[in-house]
Amino acid sequence: MPTADRPRRRADAERSIARIVTAARACLSGDPNAGLDDIAKAAGVGRMTLYGHFGNRAALVEAALADALRAGEEALAAVDLTGDARQALARLLHSSWSLVAESAVLLGAAREVLPAERILELHAAPAQRVEDLVRRGQAQGVFRTDLPMTWLVNVVHHILKGAAEESRAQRLEAEDAAGIVTATALAVLALPAPDPLGPR
Amino acid sequence: MPTADRPRRRADAERSIARIVTAARACLSGDPNAGLDDIAKAAGVGRMTLYGHFGNRAALVEAALADALRAGEEALAAVDLTGDARQALARLLHSSWSLVAESAVLLGAAREVLPAERILELHAAPAQRVEDLVRRGQAQGVFRTDLPMTWLVNVVHHILKGAAEESRAQRLEAEDAAGIVTATALAVLALPAPDPLGPR
DNA sequence: CTTAACTCGTACTCATGAGTACGACTTTGC
DNA sequence: GCAAAGTCGTACTCATGAGTACGAGTTAAG
User: Which of A110, A188, B130, B144 has its CA 20 to 30 A from that of B184?
Assistant: First the structure.
């Protein structure tokens, strides 16, 4: 599973594959229904070359998603997640929100073509990182514990996705987005006010 | 714009239209790509009847969305939005979250077929209601004012959509959802802690 | 330099879903 | 009860996008 032990690939093939995957990420992040045709064109490669490497749409979409997630992992790994969990989360969001946002549409494309469990698998690593962070925040007493962990992790993702949509619709300035997303996510994770409406 | 002054419609036509719109809402809420064929079948009506009333896919999708929003308006109108804005929001979400959640997929279908502004128009009434509520909460000093109003309103919508997705993926029990959604939305709108990390 | 790997155009097949044409049958409204 | 309005099946056309077949030309690797 680490790297290739395949029957060997020539250098130009490797190059083509890289260009195709990159193009696929770009195209599918703009339109989840982009055709293989468009992707090949964007990659500057013949349609047949594409089929030579991927065989069908699902395989290509999976490769594109995997690539996006690999990039995500890289970004995550570069962030300092130690110290105060709130500050760590802020750093994490600032450095990765745009990537997640851009990939949201691609993810949508993947959902139509890949089994749900496969997508879960691919997300496992980054999701784990976020979960660990949330758990640390809870242990530090700065994140809430009254909602399910799964929700806590995923709602952050949904907020990012939402921000991406707002940004695409011009209802959010790209510059402001990172700050707003961070503020929102922190608000969700923060300890709830002891009793928001006074004792009942 | 109120009701019909049209060349007159027969009772059975009215009935057909109602069945079609209902079926369209149901089908498109399950699969945004549902075919007109499926919808006609679900409505228990011939495909030609459907075309007789709608002409094209876009018209039908628009009618379905409009119907869903009409239902939403009804639900909203039935909720008491006076008093403490937080409690009012809680009431609002409890009574309408499932409707919004179910319609999220339908909304997605509409986005592919209708101009963005048309969708905005259709949403105007319910969106205004929510905005008014948020504004009232701000005036009462219980909702934050440091983020753009548009975001505040829309992020609630995104949270509902996210919850719907989680629920569909079996990661959220349907019974728990209302409470979780409410808690999350309130957390987003609440006044942020004076300075979450102590004075800088 | 030679061969296996790779590229890629052209020209298909195939399935799907939108929308149209036509015409016979049925229901409603007055 | 009769004309207009509505229903609806069958049989199209048309566009699109996935995937296949074939074969000639190009390039990297030993």
Answer: A110
| Chain A residues within 8 A of B157 when measuring between CB atoms | 162
Of A161, A183, A188, nearest to B147 by CB-CB distance is A183
Task: Provide the token pair at A96.
Answer: 């990765």
pLDDT > 70 fraction of chain A, expressed in percent and rounded: 94
Q: What is the pTM of this model?
A: 0.92
Identify the closest residue of chain B to A87 by CA–CA distance: B197
Nucleotides of C under 7 A from a protein CB: 5-11, 16-23, 27-29
Please give the structure tokens belonging to residue B18.
């109602």
The DSSP-derived string for B116-145 is HHHHHHHHHHHHHHHHHHHHHHHHTT-B--
Answer for A56: CB within 7 Å of strand D.
Answer: yes
Mind listing the pLDDT tens digit for each residue in B117-175?
999 999 999 999 999 999 999 999 999 999 999 999 999 999 999 999 999 999 999 99
The reported pLDDT for the residue numbered B194 is 73
Tally: H helices and E strands in chain A: 8, 0
- CB proximity list for A188: less than 8 A, separation 6 or greater: A152, A155, A156, A159, B184, B187, B188
Which residues 6+ apart lie within 8 Å of A26 measured at CB? A42
- For residue A190, give the DSSP letter: B
* Eight-state DSSP code of residue A32: T
- Is strand C less than 7 A from the beta carbon of A4? no
A67 vs A49: CA distance, rounded Å: 19
